Amino acid sequence: MDERRKPYPFDQFEPKWQAIWEKQQLFHAPNPGEKDFDHARPKFYVLDMFPYPSGAGLHVGHPEGYTATDIIARYKRMRGFNVLHPMGWDAFGLPAEQYAIKSGQHPAITTRENIAKFKNQLKRIGFSYDWQREINTTDPRYYKWTQWIFLQIYNSWFNPATNKAEPISTYSGKNPDEVRLAYVADVPVNWCPELGTVLANEEVVDGKSEIGRFPVVRRPMRQWMLRITAYAERLLNELDKLDWPEGIKLLQRNWIGRSEGAEIDFKIGKSDQKVRVFTTRPDTLYGGTFLVLAPEHSLVDLIVTEEQWPAVREYREKTARKSDLERSDLSKDKTGVFTGAYAINPATNEKIPIWIADYVLIGYGTGAIGGVPAHDERDLEFAKKFDLPIVIVVQPRGDEPAFGFTGEGIAINSPVINGLTSTEAKKKITAWLEERSLGKGAVNYKLRDWLFSRQRYWGEPFPIIWENGNHRSLGESELPVVPPPLEDYKPTGTGEPPLSKAKVWVRYSEKATRETNVMPQWAGSCWYYLRFCDPHEDRRFVGEQAERYWMSGAKPGGVDLYVGGTEHAVLHLLYARFWQKVLFDLGYVSKPEPFQRLVNQGIILGEDNQKMSKSRGNIVNPDDVIDQYGADAFRCYEMFMGPLEQMKPWSMRGVEGVSRFLARVWRLFMSENQSGDWELSGKIKQIDADKAQQKMTHATIKKVTEDIESFSFNTAISQMMIFVNVFTGVEAIPLSSMRSFLVLLSPFAPHIASELWEQLNTKFADARGDITKQSWPAYDETLLVEDEVEVVLQINGRVRDRMKMSVSATDEEMKAAALANAKIQDRIVGKTVRNVIVVPKKLVNIVAD
RNA sequence: GCCGAUGUGGCGAAAUGGCAGACGCAACGGACUUAAAAUCCGUUGGGCCGUAAAAGGCCCGUGCCGGUUCGAGUCCGGCCAUCGGCACCA
């Protein structure tokens, strides 16, 4: 293509229009109270998941969602909305730091370079972002407020009575540090020696770090935690009113993992000690023949008998050394040790042995279970292995065997609840336990508190200092806390964060030292959508008026449309919801949920149908595509590939096809003169469209409008192709149809639409101004109505003939015409017509045999 | 193991329960051209009958098996395959 002439001169007009948009700041959205703000228009906030600016630059997957949102943004502007469509950078994170370790270059420099590269690439695609609102999570003017929000979390607690966060000052207990939403705890963490940091559960995949795939081991360490579990119920319930894909809601529900059941106390021997267990099947209590504690359970020390100590100690040490991976890998084979102690089953009053086993997790429920081997697979396996008694207490309703039956049935061998269904039995036994103070109904969640500290350099420092072993928050006036420059960014390897090497910085005062952990990468993205509302406000994390305006709406979520990949289904999306709720409870924001509507774009595969990766060498770089085919072709191809949500392979041939379509659009408007220059085609005239042309135009307006609304961008483009095919070769082309068409095309291919619109304006005075300032065309449904339609004639559901009929034909007329049809006649001779089904304007089906 | 998504030509795909394959790619044929590229026009799911060639006709076909219905890619039940998530959560 280099030496050859391009099919249309996109290389000239695409940069031209990008320069015009930038110069005129056409896509800047003023805030309420600012110059040019229009109160009469409704608002629309359309947001992309902002990228991590990696050194590799954009790949074609990024702009897929970005193109979709850009189409929506441009469309909504033409429909009269004030559109907020911003972009920014989630720039804290490991790669820049890893690079710093290797090269010694400060991550801030790497980050700045990568951002410049990303921004340049995005601008070449012609996205209509309001670049005045660009934000960068590593900018002190931004993370000052990330730290500020942390302080709000730190300085509040979750009041169960009001079911919301409140300032810590309202807490009446003795030690507020026990209830803060941000707290310090010694917890078994996922320690990654290679990365020199701990990781959140969510960042560990199959026992390896999500980044780098290095092994991860369990190790107790003192860490900052955020009390997200306090919000489990609300995070679960408030999903209902969000317009998110059901699949994503389900992922979050499963992650939160609510289960209802009971907590039951088992007395230990003759002492006053009790073990509390959680179960979802209190109705199987009579079948409980042993107890199992997690090896780490604090009661173990108190109950183990002399002779069992050595075995217990050895087992506990062995478990502690196992990583999570090993622990679950060996899941097929149950292990455990008897403690020598016994408990009393409160239902049967029988003495049952207490074991420890690593299939019971310290972090879930009470860290102890009642073993009901007859009706729980894991307990059954354990009982078989260690020869523990098995008692059947649930009778299945079908003909399944009761032994090992885990479903719901009828309670048996259980005096208090015999004959009841499992559901009834659960209620009754729980009430029975409550009356005797032996237990109570309880709800448990799989969700754990959020491990919030990292032993890294390139992240937000905590606005916290330590004095005499106690933590204390810095004042708001001391923000931002800026990380000190370091000679050496390497992790210390001991778990001591790199910031501890900056001795001067760490020393806050005579008596106090700074916290040296930093926040995880998720911190900055937990609230960036709020900052976009008002990115330059320096007195508050977001201006109140701006927040109330852009986040407004009748539904709980403030952002009207949020587009990004499924990989953030439970991490970013859950964390952001959590922060939003804390800020909402404390009265800082107006909405309980951040994102009202969520759409996930599918992954784009390489041409070989494999995931794009450096090692496969199948990565497509948007720059190369744009060099060859232009930004409009790139955008349109990304949308033409198939449904947005679907995974689909890239195809350069496909890009070429879409590029040919845009060239046809170009030549519909432009022709080459003698000297080889493009000029407006003389075929375009101010004439009325004939009936068929008018119908095609309105059908196209309708289809494109509806398809944009339903995110069916691929079929919208198909319709525009049909339109162009119809008008290609027409001798006199009606101007009005071309005007409408260009407006429809402009969200998809804004450069060519702008250029052709301008060309029309040089000759015709029927419209004025830039195409981006036009309003979206309306369609007239009456023009789409046909006089005659082709009706399908079927016999027994098989098409036998077709005939033209007036749309106003009655059912009777259609039936009569069908039966009179020659081909139908031929086929039904000698047969009995049993029934005739008439679908108006569509078909007649004759049932005959 | 559990949960979810997907399965339609050579390929990407389209189809409020009503003509399966729109639109695009690829392929083939034609026009233009000294030639090629580009462009334009046409053909293109499979099988069979038919004819000199056409016209035309019939049957099969949306992962597999069954059901509901006048009529099923679409709804229901069971299975298979691929992808994604969770995974000893009591």
Q: Descriptors for this entry?
A:
849 residues; alpha/beta; Isoleucyl-tRNA Synthetase, Domain 1; Isoleucyl-tRNA Synthetase, domain 2; 4 domains; seven-stranded mixed beta sheet; four-stranded parallel beta sheet; 20% strand; RNA-binding
Provide an overview of this structure.
With 849 residues, this protein is of the alpha/beta class. The chain folds into four domains: 1-138 and 602-784, Orthogonal Bundle (Isoleucyl-tRNA Synthetase, Domain 1); 148-234 and 449-522, no CATH class; 258-444, Valyl/Leucyl/Isoleucyl-tRNA synthetase, editing domain (Isoleucyl-tRNA Synthetase, domain 2); 786-848, Ubiquitin-like (UB roll). The protein is 33% helix and 20% strand. It contains 26 helices and 38 strands. The strands form 13 sheets. Strands 12, 13, 14, 15, 16, 17 and 20 form a seven-stranded mixed beta sheet that branches. The radius of gyration is 34 Å and the shape is globular. The protein starts with 9 loop residues before the first helix and ends with a strand. 41% of the residues are buried. It binds one RNA strand of 90 nucleotides through helix 7, strand 13, strand 17, helix 11 and strand 30.
Give a short overview.
The protein has 849 residues and is of the alpha/beta class.
How is the secondary structure organized here?
Layout: H1 10-24, E1 43-48, H2 62-78, E2 82-84, E3 88-89, H3 94-103, H4 107-124, E4 135-136, H5 140-154, E5 156-159, E6 164-167, E7 182-192, E8 197-199, E9 204-205, E10 208-209, E11 217-226, H6 232-237, H7 246-256, E12 258-268, E13 274-279, E14 290-293, H8 300-303, H9 309-321, H10 324-329, E15 337-344, E16 351-356, E17 368-371, H11 377-386, E18 394-395, E19 410-411, H12 422-435, E20 439-445, E21 450-451, E22 464-467, E23 470-473, H13 503-506, E24 512-514, H14 522-525, H15 528-531, H16 544-550, E25 557-559, E26 561-564, H17 572-585, E27 593-595, E28 598-600, E29 604-605, H18 622-629, H19 631-640, E30 648-649, H20 652-669, E31 670-672, E32 678-680, E33 684-685, H21 691-709, H22 713-727, E34 733-734, H23 735-745, H24 750-763, E35 788-795, E36 798-806, H25 811-820, H26 822-828, E37 833-839, E38 843-848
Parallel strand pairs: 1-2, 1-26, 3-4, 14-16, 25-27, 26-28, 29-30, 33-34, 35-38
Antiparallel strand pairs: 5-6, 7-8, 7-11, 9-10, 11-21, 12-13, 12-15, 12-20, 14-17, 15-16, 18-19, 22-23, 22-24, 31-32, 35-36, 37-38
Helix pairs in contact: 1-24, 3-4, 18-19, 19-20, 20-22, 21-22, 21-23, 23-24
The structure holds one RNA strand of 90 nucleotides.
